[in-house]
Amino acid sequence: MELIDDSVEAAVASLGTARIAYERGAFCGWPCFGDLWVYEVSSGSRRRLGTGHPVIFSPDGSELLVTQPSSATEIVSVADGTSRVVQPGLSEAAPSAVRWEADGIRELFGVTTNSAVAEFWIRNLATGENRKVYEWRGAAWPTGHAWAPDGSRFVVWLRECEPEPYQTYDWGCPSHEALYLVDPATGRDTWIVGGDGGHVGDAAVFSPDAKRIAYIFGALRLTSMP
Length: 226
Hints:
By secondary structure, the protein is mainly β. The chain has 2 domains: about 1-85, Thrombin, subunit H, CATH 2.40.10; about 90-225, Neuraminidase. The chain contains no helices and 18 strands. The chain has strands at about 10-15, 20-25, 35-40, 45-50, 55, 65, 75, 85, 100, 105-110, 115-125, 130-145, 155-160, 175-180, 190-195, 205, 210-215, 220-225. The strands form 4 sheets. Strands 9-10-11-12-13-14-15 form a 7-stranded antiparallel β-sheet, with no helix packed on it. A hairpin with a 2-residue loop joins β9 and β10. About 30% of the residues are buried.
C-alpha cells in the first residue's frame, strides 16, 4: 500500500489517464476549501493546481470540474492550472450528480417543492437549460442519487412520508427510505428496495456495464437491474 498524501478531504479519479485529483488540508471552516492537487499514478508525481473541491474529470482527463467557496464552478486545466468559470454553476458538488460527455456537462439534481413533491431535473451547464425528468407521486424529499455510467438511467433515494394526515413537508413526519430506478426519457420508475432499514448517505454505485448496483440498506447489497 502506498501513501499518496495525508489530510485529504475529497478525491476523484480519471481512470483513462490514471490521474487522481484531491483536496488537501481544508481546516479553515466554511466557506473555505483546501489546496487542489493532482497525482499522476504512472510517474508518482504530484503538483498543486490551486484551491477548490474536485468534482469530476473531463473524458480525456485534461480538465477538472471544481467548485469554490464562493459557490463558483470552474473548469481547471490539469496541464497549467488555468481556469474558467462555468455559468450557471453546479447546485451540488457530488461526482454522482454530474456527467461530463463529449457534447457538454450535465448535472442531475433533486429538489422538493413547497407542496412536498420531490422532483429531479437535468441541467446543461453549457446552455443553462433545465429539464424535469422525474416527479414523485406523494410527499417526499430526495436524499441521494447516482447516474448510470452510460447516462441512460439513474437511481434516487427518497424519504417518503406516510399517507395522510402527514402529507406535509415535515422532517418529523412518519417516513421510510426507498430506492428507485428511473428512466429519464420516460420518467418511469422501478422500486428497488425500501422500508425502515435506512441507508448510509447517498451510497449507491452502478457497475461499469450499468447492469447491477451496489448500495447500503442495513447491509451492503448488490442487485441486478431490471
